[in-house]
């Protein structure tokens, strides 16, 4: 756990960001604001002043294989935007921070010590008429050393297969219709699996249960009650998954960063991988 849901922890309020806009606009590597979207047109249309834009598809995925960017590619991306290992990085994005949470998880996976998420994300900021711009900031490039992954935060398909019929708790954060096998992806999403259903033994706690109608995270006591009511307790080893790993990053963030669950891994291969594996066990229905 890297903090609590406070202004000094991994979750910061929109007003905290607004009070520091001059610092975010400055060419100072101490503080950097990053917007990450699956659609780069969002950033082009309007973004928080001082924010740099990361394209989730182009910048945060491997170039030729379905994987995270390599350590060298991730280091190059950060260095090009003036981010050093000591930079406090503050991230936000669309879809109630789906992709920002995935970027936060990537930063943590690659050992960056100080990352925050803006509560409410892009939608909250725009809906409350907070300052925006179309100006793209320019920051001096720096050298970011190639990081070493923290593999205890990531689950692979072999880890998931080994976890079946053990005490490991699998949390499926997708829509109930996806969990039951009635849908293989949310409407409009094209990357998916051949088969529908869920990993046997998984518990369905939809990612959206973590946030309120304003897209801000629910209070920690409500989040703790939510997961304990589903039998997901802090003493367990937990693996989260969704379709491609972005929604499950939100649940990973809640459990690991906000609630302090010690052993939580994000299976970013998720259903797109598991549902396409030859011979992988699949359950349907509730």
Task: Report a brief summary of the structure.
With 286 residues, the chain is α/β, with parallel strands linked by helices. The chain has helices at 14-18, 21-25, 41-45, 56-59, 71-80, 94-109, 121-127, 157-163, 176-180, 220-229, 247-258, 270-274; strands at residues 11-12, 31-37, 51-55, 88-93, 115-118, 169-172, 203-204, 238-241, 264-266. The protein has twelve helices and nine strands.
Question: How would you describe this protein?
Answer:
The chain has 286 residues and is of the alpha/beta class. It has 2 domains: 11-149, 3-Layer(aba) Sandwich (Oxidized Rhodanese, domain 1); 152-274, 3-Layer(aba) Sandwich (Oxidized Rhodanese, domain 1), CATH 3.40.250.10. The chain has 12 helices and 9 strands. The protein has helices spanning 14-18, 21-25, 41-45, 56-59, 71-80, 94-109, 121-127, 157-163, 176-180, 220-229, 247-258, 270-274, and strands spanning 11-12, 31-37, 51-55, 88-93, 115-118, 169-172, 203-204, 238-241, 264-266. The strands form 2 sheets. It has a 5-stranded parallel sheet. The protein has a 4-stranded parallel sheet with strand order 7-6-8-9, with helices on one face. Helix 6 (94-109) crosses helix 7 (121-127) and helix 6 packs across helix 11 (247-258). It is globular and about 50 Å long. The two termini are 32 Å apart.
Report the CATH C-level class of the largest domain: Alpha Beta
Largest sheet: number of strands, sense, barrel closure: 5 strands, parallel
Strand order of the largest sheet: 1-5-4-2-3
Output mean pLDDT. Answer: 94
Provide the low-confidence segments as ranges. 1-6
Tell me the structural class. alpha/beta
Give me the Rg, rounded. Answer: 18 Å
User: Mind telling me the CATH superfamily name of the largest domain?
Assistant: Rhodanese-like domain
List SSEs in N-to-C order: EHHEHEHHEHEHHEHEHEHEH
Tell the overall outline. Answer: globular
């Amino acid at each position: 756990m890297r903090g609590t849901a406070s202004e000094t922890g991994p979750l910061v309020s929109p007003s905290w960001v607004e009070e520091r806009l001059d610092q975010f606009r400055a060419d100072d590597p101490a503080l950097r604001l990053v917007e990450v979207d699956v659609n780069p047109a969002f950033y082009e249309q309007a973004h928080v002043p001082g924010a740099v834009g990361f394209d989730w598809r182009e910048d945060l995925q491997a170039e030729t294989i379905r994987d995270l960017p390599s350590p060298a590619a991730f280091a190059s991306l950060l260095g090009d935007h003036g981010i050093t290992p000591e930079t406090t990085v503050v991230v936000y994005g669309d879809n109630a921070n789906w992709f920002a949470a995935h970027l936060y998880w990537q930063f943590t996976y690659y050992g960056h010590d100080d990352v925050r998420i803006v509560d409410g994300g892009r939608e909250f900021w725009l809906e409350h008429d907070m300052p925006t711009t179309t100006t793209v900031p320019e920051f001096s490039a720096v050298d970011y050393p190639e990081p070493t992954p923290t593999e205890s935060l990531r689950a692979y398909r072999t880890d998931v297969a080994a976890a079946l019929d053990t005490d490991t708790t699998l949390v499926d954060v997708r829509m109930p219709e996806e969990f039951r096998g009635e849908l293989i992806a949310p409407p409009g999403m094209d990357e998916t699996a051949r088969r529908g259903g869920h990993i046997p033994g998984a518990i369905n706690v939809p990612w959206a249960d973590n946030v309120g109608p304003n897209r801000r995270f629910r209070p920690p006591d409500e989040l703790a009650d939510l997961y304990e009511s589903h039998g997901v307790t802090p003493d367990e080893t937990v693996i989260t998954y969704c379709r491609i790993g972005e929604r499950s990053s939100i649940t990973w963030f809640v459990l690991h960063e906000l609630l302090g669950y010690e052993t939580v891994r994000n299976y970013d291969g998720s259903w797109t991988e598991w549902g396409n594996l030859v011979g992988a066990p699949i359950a349907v229905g509730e």
